[in-house]
Amino acid sequence: MLKLVNSLSRSQKWAFLLCVDLVLVLVAQLLTLTAFSNSPPTLAMLSDISLLIAFQILAGIPIAMWLGIPKIQLKAYETRALGKTAIFGVLLVVVNVALGRISHQDIPLGNSLVFGLIFVVLSASSKMVMLQALLALHRRAQPRCRVLIYGAGTTGMQLASALKTHEWIEVVAFVDDNPAMQSMTVAGLPVLRPVKIKSIIEEKEINRVLLAMPSLSPPKLAQIVRKMQKLGVEVQVLPSFAQLVGEEALVDKLTPVVPANFLGRAQLDHQFGTGGRTYRGKTILVSGAGGSIGSELCRQLLLCRPARLVLFEMSEAALYTVDMELRTLAEDSKTEITPVLGSTTDPRMARKVLGEHRPDVVFHAAAYKHVPLVEANPLAGLANNVLGTRTIAEAAREAGVDRFILISSDKAVRPTNVMGASKRLAELVVQDLAMRSDSTSFSMVRFGNVIGSSGSVVPLFHDQISKGGPVTLTHEDVTRYFMTIREAVQLVLLAGSFERGRGEGGDVFVLDMGKPVKIRDLALQMIEASGYTLRDKNNPDGDIEIVSIGLRPGEKMHEELLIGEGLLTTPHPKILRAKEAWLSEIEVAGALRALRQAVAAGDEGAAREVVSRWVEGYVPPDAARGS
To answer: Strand, helix or coil at 472?
Structure first.
């Protein structure tokens, strides 16, 4: 039956609906005669009015088409359509009276009025019956989506009314947090308590939950969405009226994060030059060019107008992205962009790249930096961060590179994790090469957390806030040094431009970053900057909660910038130089040999023993947590 209905053209459907109304004209006349004669009409009575009924039906065709009644869709048949049916009925009464006078038949006005009323009732009822029959056919032909509406207010009631005529959606019930609404019946549906939402979904076989609470704050909506999704149902949020009419954007309240706002100090960007003359016209190689630091290095190096910029990156996707971006930025310059896909841990690849492109300066930013990941995968972290650094630094010395700058981290200072220890070992490797190099100047730049970079707390907190929280801290008292990615890169470029005599390298440069920032204060700032309030015991109705989850393996409460005591000045007042102890050539060779053997054997214990032996201040995670 449904196939037959769907096969009908639009004009055929109009013709069918018109025929139904015309048949109802005859039925209404017969019912009127029956009502006034108190018995079914006789053949004689029908014979007397047959011509009148025929003319009335014929007259009804143009009237119905003029009013557009056959074109009204069954699912759109509401107040306005009912009004047109009433007008149609009135006009049929007029036709009935006029035809009676023309034919000199004595038809009382009351009879005509009753006829019109009966016709309007029959016509409207027939539309509703046909609609329900059609919906039943659709529901039988395809699976029905059983819907639960969360929110029984005005928006929820309007939504339920709009969905009543939907072909395959069936609204089952409401749930509402307002105790006054619970146990009531709204729009013909029960209002249930949300505490029983799990059993409601199971018992009523709910497929989808529609959130009809546009006035609720986005974090609280997000919390409800996550709760519903955990129960295995699809969740959709109804926008507010203000959003629908364009007064508010159809996005959440979160504004773009400006990392510098959370430094707790003035930015230093304007205080740095870039040492541009050092890099102008030179060939520069950046390893890890697709990472947060590496890509920003490349962007700022373009401003220095080097002759060639070699992008050395092991991730194809990251290399493609940074290459496309830099080619666009370099359109108006003469800088040649050269992408190279490969790993710094491959000696043959490193020698080939450096021997072929002969860079004047190498910035080594390729490293695994996420503390928990490296802690869980120590062999990969140590191989990449230590052995990879040794490979490319040695290749740089062999190729006669003028300057080699290692990007290090404050986590290298008395590290409690493998990532920090790997960066300190990498520093020791570079310091060793610096003492034995007559042609290449080696140096290191050590800075704190780069706020806003991948894996840092700012994008993590932003994502958690957008999902309604909670914002997770490892500890209430954790502090970190922070700097913007722009500050970090300008430090690297400026430190790399300092003039030093051959064999005088091995310096560790540190940025004066002010006081460390308390991570909880940063989280609170971000919540308030997003337009929300903190939810805690003092404000249980707030939007976002802050939760402490405990220190992760290898994580320190407070980071440091120096291993030894004291700092030396540099040509820039905000950049300081640390003169720290290093290992002898024999000690470095022994450490690297032991590390290579541990990596080759897949022995994590042996690799950690290398770290414990050669990295000053290294404290294993268990011992660090106990202190």
So the answer is: strand
pLDDT band with cut points at 50, 70 and 90 for residue 509: confident
Most confident segment among 349-353, 412-416, 451-455? 349-353
Number of separate helices (H) and strands (E) present in the chain: 23, 21
User: Using one digit for the tens of pLDDT, what is the confidence trace for 577-627?
Assistant: 777 777 888 998 999 999 999 999 999 889 888 888 888 777 655 554 444
The DSSP-derived string for 158-211 is HHHHHHTT-SSEEEEEEE-S-TTTTT-EETTEEEE-GGGHHHHHHHTT--EEEE
Q: What are 522's two structure tokens? A: 């940063």
For 468, the token pair is 């309604």
What is the C-alpha separation between 315 and 268, in angstroms, rounded?
32
310 beta partners: 285, 338
pTM: 0.58
Three-class secondary structure of residue 233 per DSSP: coil
φ/ψ of 286, rounded to 5, equals -120, 115
Q: What is the mean pLDDT of the chain?
A: 77
Q: Say if residues 224 and 209 touch (Cβ distance below 8 Å).
A: no
- In angstroms, the CA 118 to CA 3 distance is 33
- 423 C-beta neighbours (distance < 10 Å), count: 31
- Would you state the structure tokens that stand for residue 281, as one six-digit string? 């016209």
Q: 356: how many CB neighbours lie within 10 A of its CB?
A: 12
Phi, psi values for residue 471, rounded to 5°: -85, 125
CA neighbours within 13 Å on the CB side: how many for 22? 19
Most confident option among 108-122, 151-165, 417-431: 417-431
Going by C-alpha positions, the residue among 244, 241, 235, 338 that lies closest to residue 283 is: 338
Largest CA distance in the chain: 129
Determine the pLDDT at residue 347. 93
